[in-house]
Design goal:
binds magnesium ion; Rossmann fold; 9-stranded mixed beta sheet; alpha+beta; binds adenosine-5'-triphosphate; globular; BirA Bifunctional Protein, domain 2; 31 strands; YbaK protein
Length: 601
């Protein structure tokens, strides 16, 4: 490829809306072009990288037994109503919809369980055909609340989505493990160090799931992990032990205390300490989170008001709270949001910040975190503006009936069940695997004939990798101050040849010969034939991140050219050795990635 024909579009300035490195560099180096909010055009360089990413992922999923197919992006509403997910995705507004000329409504694929399950039912008749795994790499749409971070969170993206069908849980478990290995192999070949964490199953549903994460400070996910026990979970799901609060000198009887303007916990604690409760801490305060849940009821959705209490030094985990609501009879939660101030006033009769567990608390369901003791004195809101009860014992002093459950957000410094310290770090979710069970097959009546001559719903698994997000994650993991440093397996080109003496015909001819010879040797080379200063060209290729650079310059007179690895030092190589040397380095880099994949357990 000639650089002059590539429509290169490198920029000096960072885009104004770019908060993360990958967004900045992919725009500046000319890989992606913003075409709308959360919408990107893949430029020629990006297309080359994405094709390689897709190919590696497809090879590994096929190696694990996957059969590649292509499903329509338009999915009929009627099909989604049969699984019960139309209402759910409408309530959370995740799905974009369109109507055709006849008024038939479609969702734009956010995922494809319904479509693939209906297909499987039509081609798989007998247990003898199982297991089967279908996959595709196709465009997905999600109406994200906040598209951001470039390719990380967009409305339209490329996902590898795979779906497996089984006649037994054991068989599903085996495929789940095979897919886990396929993912780790794919990420290793892509040059990414990814690790699996326990995950919440979210709107997809199912009984078990793992996410694959790339460690990155810019990541939107928080991960709780324990180096000693190997435990790792998305914070949405993480469980752990919280050190109990030390006892404090509470009054023997609860006291109603005027706490003017002290609606925030830190201010309340400071105020009460100054009033003589010197050993009071935030951990002795019952913090109330008032929320409105939209729950599934009779095929539709209904609002449910909830008060969730945690220790004042902790936060509510809204995902765990949603599961707790379902466990305690509230119904399956489609959506959860904090109450608006006027809703808080209606539920408590007070300004926000004074909600407490007294019978006057007007909500449908009260859930208390298991780390908040109901038999110990607490400071609680009085459901009266500017007042708190001090020394209130929930069970003794007539606290509202409540369910106790695990709804707290675990954090760095808590302990695992085995007593080891938990740590927290941030990550980017690049993939997700789920055990679905019969959720979709039962709803859609997708069955196979078993050895017992009876019809059984398929037992299913599903698996997703954000192929386009993977490109951004690779940049997050591989960059320096000068730009991107692509792993060899996914670089847009393996080597760039730069003639470094503008107007010197001998240099230009030699560069051309080297470039032709690299192509003839099957290497992916680009020749920078543009009319620009060498310094400008070097800056561009560092930004674009091509792993190897061959420079034809002054040393050509002595029969040598310069070879430099991106981010490494330069060496001089004899002209007659350069093609072999580039080839050796490309192969060595590729083989190192393959060895890393083979090392995956
Ligand atoms: P997230 O929690 O980041 O919103 P998700 O859990 O909703 O993602 P899945 O349904 O598990 O996503 O989709 C599989 C994969 O698709 C994810 O692991 C991620 O890599 C990718 N993905 C999901 N949403 C987006 C998006 N809006 N933009 C780019 N990639 C995405
Ligand atoms: Mg996910």
């Amino acid at each position: 490829m000639l650089a002059s024909r590539l429509c290169l579009a490198t920029l000096r300035e960072d885009p104004a809306d770019a908060e993360v490195v990958s967004h900045r560099l992919l725009v500046r180096a000319g890989f992606i072009h913003k075409s709308g909010s959360g919408l990107y055009l893949y430029q020629p360089l990006m297309q080359r990288v994405l094709d390689k990413v897709r190919r590696i992922i497809a090879e590994e999923i096929a190696r694990a037994g996957g059969l590649e197919i292509t499903m329509p992006i338009l999915q009929e509403r009627e099909l989604w109503e049969r699984s019960g997910r139309w209402a759910l995705y409408q309530a959370s507004r995740t799905m974009l919809t369109v109507k055709d000329r006849n008024g038939i409504e479609y969702g734009l694929a956010p995922t494809a369980e319904e479509v693939v399950t209906a297909y499987a039912a039509s081609v798989i008749k007998s247990y003898r055909q199982l297991p089967v795994c279908f996959f595709q790499q196709h465009t997905k749409f999600r109406d994200e609340i906040r598209p951001r971070f470039g390719l990380m969170r967009v409305k339209e993206f490329i996902m590898m989505d795979a779906y497996s069908f089984h006649a037994s849980e054991d068989c599903l478990e085996r495929t789940y493990q095979v897919m886990r290995v396929a993912y780790l192999r794919a990420f290793a070949r892509l040059g990414l160090s990814a690790f699996a964490v326990e995950a919440d199953t979210g709107a997809i549903g199912g009984s078990g799931s793992h996410e694959f994460m790339i460690a990155a400070d810019s990541g939107e996910d928080a991960i709780i992990y324990c180096p000693e026990s190997g435990y790792a979970a998305n914070v949405e799901r993480a469980v752990g032990r919280i050190a109990p609060a030390a006892p404090w000198q509470a009054p023997a009887e609860p006291r109603l205390i005027l706490t003017p303007g002290r609606s925030a916990i830190a201010e309340l604690v400071a105020f009460l300490r100054a009033q003589g409760y010197a050993d009071l801490g935030a951990e002795h305060v019952a913090k109330c989170f008032l929320a409105v849940a939209l729950v599934e009821r009779g095929g539709g959705a209904a609002p449910l008001t909830v008060a969730a209490f945690v220790r004042g030094d902790r936060e509510v985990n809204e995902v765990k709270l949603s599961h707790a609501i379902a466990r305690h009879g509230g119904g399956s939660v489609l959506q959860l949001r904090p109450m608006h101030p006027e809703e808080v006033r209606a539920a408590t009769g007070a300004e926000p910040g004074y909600a407490g567990p007294l019978p006057g608390l007007g909500v449908d369901l009260v859930i208390v975190d298991q780390a908040l003791p109901l038999d110990q004195p607490l400071v609680v809101g009085a459901n009266r503006t500017d007042y708190h009860w001090v020394g209130f014992v929930w069970q003794r002093d007539g606290g509202r009936a409540a369910a106790q459950d695990d709804i707290v957000r675990i954090r760095d410094g808590d302990h695992s069940a085995s007593g080891h310290r938990l740590h927290e770090r941030r990550g980017i979710e690049v993939g997700h695997i789920f055990k679905l069970g019969t959720k979709y097959s039962a709803a859609l009546g997708a069955c196979y004939l078993g050895p017992d001559q009876q019809l059984h719903p398929f037992i299913m698994g599903c698996y997703g990798i954000g192929s386009s997000r993977v490109v951004a994650a690779a940049v997050e993991q591989h960059h320096d101050a000068d730009g991107i440093r692509w792993p060899m397996s996914i670089a847009p080109f393996q080597a760039v040849v730069v003639p470094a003496r503008p107007g010197d015909e001998a240099v230009e001819a030699a560069a051309r010969r080297i470039y032709d010879a690299l192509l003839a040797a099957g290497l992916e080379a680009v020749l920078d034939d543009r009319e620009a200063k060498p310094g400008v060209k070097f800056k561009d290729w560092d930004l674009i991140g091509v792993p190897l650079r061959v420079v034809c310059g002054r040393a050509l007179a002595e029969g040598r050219v310069e070879l430099k690895e991106r981010g490494g030092s330069a060496t001089e190589v004899p002209l007659d050795r350069i093609v072999a040397e580039v080839g050796d380095r490309v192969r060595a880099a590729q083989q190192a990635l393959l060895r890393a994949a083979d090392a995956v357990a």
